[in-house]
Amino acid sequence: MGQIQQQIHTKLEQALSPQWLAIENESDQHSGPAGRESHFKVTLVSPLFAGLLPVKRHQKVYSLLSEELAGSVHALALHLYTPEEWEKLGAQRPDSPSCLGGGR
């Protein structure tokens, strides 16, 4: 786990007390040098999302990760669920679409 990925994990873990948290570095699926930390997919299940519309959940995470988003993180795919929603999905997060690249 890279430094940025670890920072994201720590901040989300501390602030949202997730029942499930997966942070995937998808940077190598996009153009650029190997080993970078610019594209992440976050799947997070927390009872703290109960009663919040999806946009409010996203805003909460964006606020927590404002430092990373102002720096090297270029893209952040968020899949944010309550425990009940996660159970209805069969504890499966959606796959990310293939990147076509900036100029393709």
* Total DSSP E strands: 3
Structural class: alpha+beta
Compressed to H and E, one letter per element, the order equals HEEHHEH
| Sequence of strands across the biggest β-sheet | 1-2-3
Main sheet properties? 3 strands, mixed
Averaged pLDDT: 88
What do these coordinates show?
With 104 residues, the protein is α+β, with helices and mostly antiparallel strands. It is 35% helix and 19% strand. It has a 3-stranded mixed β-sheet with strand order 1-2-3. The longest helix is centred in the first third of the chain and has 14 residues.
Describe the protein's topology.
Blueprint: H1 3-16, E1 20-25, E2 39-45, H2 54-64, H3 66-70, E3 75-81, H4 83-88
Parallel strand pairs: 2-3
Antiparallel strand pairs: 1-2
In brief, what are we looking at here?
By secondary structure, this protein is of the alpha+beta class. It has four helices and three strands, in the order αββααβα.
List keywords for this structure.
4 helices; 3 strands; alpha+beta; 104 residues; three-stranded mixed beta sheet; single chain
